[in-house]
Amino acid sequence: MIATRRLGLIAAAALAGGLAACQKPAAAVDPSKETAAIQAQIDAFNAAARARDAEKMTAMDAPDFKGYGGGPDVTGRDEDLKATKAQVADPAYAFVVKAEHTDVAKSGDLALQTGTFDASGTNPATKAVEHVTGHYVAGWKKDDQGTWRLAEVSSAPASAAPAAADKK
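The chain above was modelled as a monomer; its predicted structure follows.
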């Protein structure tokens, strides 16, 4: 009886050890590597914006992308592509984004980014070329292949400087 229990304990210990060996520890996330991969997406976006290539500008979008600010809200990659094609058709169009801070989650599959943008375009109502600078907040997520995709972005123009007080 004691030998049977001992064999049972040995078998259980061997099975537990074998199962533990099957469980791979989570890979350590290298935030600088992940930030560089997201920055590469930003660099590709800026190059595409200079070339007025709407397809490449929206290539980083997640399929369920959401965009807020700077015009009507956009839902989905296809809707973003349609809106971007309209923007790049404007002869006065120019757009550049600059990431200022990217914070990658410990899981390595989500990131939050803040930055600035500089944009120019023709105001459809006044026909005047307008220039605006501002800030954005973006949420990034990895797709099934491990590529960073822009999930959400919200932008707002920079606040105007307060008017100087009248001196008497």
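The chain has one domain: 29-157.
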